[in-house]
Amino acid sequence: MIPSRVVADEREKASGVPDELSRLNVRVYFSRLPVADYVLSPEVAVERKAVRDLVSSVYDSRLFYQAAKIAASYSKPYLLVEGDSKEVESLAKNLKSFYGAIANVTLAYGLRVVYTANPRETAVAIAELLAHARAKPLEAMPWEVPRKAGGVAAQQVFIVSSLPGVGRKLAERLLRKYGTPRRIMGLTAGELAMTQGIGWKRAEKIREALDKGFVRREERVGQEKLQG
Description:
This protein is of the alpha/beta class. The chain has two domains: about 5-130, Rossmann fold; about 150-225, 5' to 3' exonuclease, C-terminal subdomain (DNA polymerase, domain 1), CATH 1.10.150.20. The protein has twelve helices and six strands. It has helices at about 15-25, 50-60, 60-75, 85-90, 95-110, 120-130, 150-160, 170-180, 180-185, 190-195, 200-210, 215-225, and strands spanning about 5-10, 25-30, 40, 45-50, 75-80, 110-115. A six-stranded mixed sheet has the order 2-1-3-4-5-6, sandwiched between helices. It is elongated and about 70 Å long.
């Protein structure tokens, strides 16, 4: 198995994290990095801060400059906070201003925040970021799986709530009005539209989902390419 690779700033040698990464079969290369402490890919980089350093960097404004630089250089920047978060209360001059600063930099620069307790956990977190660096979002949200213990009523709500724009509450309203999922599926768009909370547009989408012929994703993509 080819080991994963990460570039670490030379100043991280004494942190213990590179040694822990090596134990996790991650090959560490050192360089004098102008931005970030660990570079995982052209898109992903990590700025590691011990809790004490994080607090001091808020008050001397280093955190703001570092956040701006890492966000400008990498599309997926991470702020990794290592240590006991309980220390913040004793170190910060004012908790409100401290967390206000953290909110500011994370939201303004899109920093993803990861918390770890020690160098070993930090190494595990970095190794997992490496392993999942090419992760992609789901193409569609999975349906909520009903609990088996819910019985027939729960199954009925689940079936109806799978319709476009129909959540659990609206599904229950439809079932109370029409009795069964089968009857609901047979309603016209006009009949659906008369139910409170649905309306004409949602009713049309429901009928389209129920009536339109099924086309596999691969076939649909091929058709779109031909039309384009």
